[in-house]
Design goal:
The protein is mainly beta and about 160 residues long. The protein has a single domain, classed as Sandwich (Immunoglobulin-like). It is about 10% helix and about 30% strand. A 5-stranded antiparallel β-sheet has the order 7-2-1-11-12, with no helix packed on it. Strand 8 and strand 9 form a beta hairpin. The longest helix has 19 residues. The chain is globular and about 35 Å long. The N and C termini lie far apart (about 75 Å).
C-alpha cells in the first residue's frame, strides 16, 4: 500500500490552526445564571438576573436572551455586550411583570440554544435577599447550587447564610 501526501501551503496550515484555536476558545466560553431576584423589596423595582462568566475567555452575549418563566407568565430580557472573564452582568426585567415569587430562569444564545437554566426558584419575601450561586459560578445542575441569601447584584456572592 502506498500513501500519497500532499504538502499544504504555510497559509493553509496557519488558517487551519487559527480556526482550531478559535473553536476551542468558543467552546470554553460560557456564562451561567449566577443570581436571581424574583421579589424585590421595592414594589416598583424590577426583577433582575445576574450572569457570571466562570471562564478565562470573553463571552459576547449580544443576541442572547434571559427568560424568567412561571406557570402563568414569562418575561424575556434581550442582552448585548461583553461578559469579561470572572465578570458579572445584570439584566433587569419590566416593573410591570407579575411578581409571583417563583420562576425558572433560562439563558439562551443567539441561536436559541440553552446555555444555562435554573431549577424552579422561590423568593416569597419582598426583601433584599435573592437566590444566588455560592460560590459564584457553582454549576452542578442541582437546586443545591442556589442559596437564598443577601443579594449582591453585580458583585460576588459571598455569604453562606440560608434564610427560610
Amino acid at each position: 500500500m502506498k500513501f500519497i501526501t500532499k504538502s499544504r501551503s504555510p497559509v493553509t496550515v496557519m488558517l487551519v490552526a487559527i480556526l482550531a484555536l478559535t473553536a476551542c476558545d468558543l467552546a470554553a466560553a460560557s456564562a451561567v445564571v449566577n443570581e436571581v431576584e424574583l421579589s424585590p423589596s421595592n414594589e416598583e423595582a424590577p426583577m433582575w438576573v445576574e450572569l457570571y462568566n466562570p471562564g478565562d475567555a470573553v463571552v459576547d452575549v449580544t443576541g442572547w436572551a434571559i427568560t424568567i418563566k412561571d406557570q402563568s407568565w414569562a418575561g424575556k430580557m434581550h442582552l448585548q455586550g461583553i461578559l469579561e472573564p470572572k465578570g458579572f452582568m445584570v439584566a433587569e426585567g419590566q416593573t410591570s411583570w407579575i411578581k409571583s415569587s417563583n420562576g425558572t430562569v433560562i439563558l439562551t444564545d443567539g441561536s436559541g440554544n440553552t446555555v444555562d437554566s435554573t431549577p424552579l426558584l422561590h423568593d416569597t419575601k419582598a426583601n433584599d435577599f435573592s437566590c444566588g450561586r455560592i460560590p459564584d459560578g457553582k454549576d452542578t445542575d442541582t437546586k443545591g447550587d442556589f442559596v437564598y441569601t443577601m443579594g449582591t447584584k453585580g458583585r460576588p456572592n459571598g455569604g453562606s447564610i440560608k434564610i427560610g
